[in-house]
Specification:
Elements lengths: L1 E2 L8 E4 L2 E11 L7 E8 L5 E7 L3 E4 L3 E11 L2 E6 L5 E5 L15 E7 L2 E6 L3 E9 L12 E6 L4 E5 L7 E5 L4 E5 L2
Antiparallel strand pairs: 1-6, 2-3, 2-6, 3-4, 4-5, 7-8, 7-10, 8-9, 10-11, 12-13, 12-15, 13-14, 15-16
Length: about 190
């Protein structure tokens, strides 16, 4: 067993019999009261976000989670097929584990999957993806002075906001955390 001092943002705890990922974790010492930790946790099964206070030094159960980098092969219905690059074993991962980021995945990308006892818990896309713009309104020369954005459809079918100077056929870099444009790829 670990105590609250060992918990960090991103840790996976077994809380009330359910696996929860810590999204926020703050140490607080109010006035002349005892110190405590305020935690915001996301239930990995239901997706619900719960808040809880832990006493300083309280014992918590940190789940033993193994992260594996796997290659995204193709989508199949409600699942995404990934392959372990060492054993060449293929697995079906529910697409909902990636959330909206499943729309930014392209064949061959390396994704990170968290497992507990061979059960997939979490799935993360790469932080940055490079995708080709398949359609956007044409940009005009000199459209770099303002921070105005326009919608652009990328090769996976997702629509992202890009600056006015980006044109169809260009490869752009997208941040998967907030779907923001990060630059052109040379």
């Amino acid at each position: 067993m670990a105590n609250t001092g060992d918990v960090k943002v991103g840790s996976i705890l077994r809380y009330n019999g359910e696996l929860c990922q810590v999204t926020e974790f703050q140490h607080r010492t109010p006035g002349n009261l005892r110190a405590f930790y305020q935690a915001k946790m996301k239930n990995l099964k239901t997706g619900k976000v719960v808040e809880n206070r832990f006493r300083a030094g309280e014992e918590v159960e940190i789940a033993r989670v193994e992260y594996k980098e796997m290659q995204f092969i193709y989508p199949e219905g409600e699942h995404i097929v990934v392959m372990d690059n060492e054993t060449y074993e293929q697995m079906h991962i529910p697409a909902e584990m990636f959330g909206e980021n499943a729309k930014l995945l392209k064949e061959g990308m390396i994704v990170k999957i968290a497992f507990e006892n061979d059960q997939p818990l979490l799935a993360e896309p790469p932080t940055f993806v490079e995708l080709e713009v398949t359609y956007t309104e044409p940009g005009l020369k000199g459209d770099t002075a303002t921070n105005t954005l326009k919608p652009a459809t990328v090769e996976t079918g997702a629509v992202v906001q890009v600056p006015l100077f980006v044109n169809t056929g260009e490869v752009i870099k997208i941040d998967t955390r907030d779907w923001s444009y990060s630059g052109k790829v040379k």
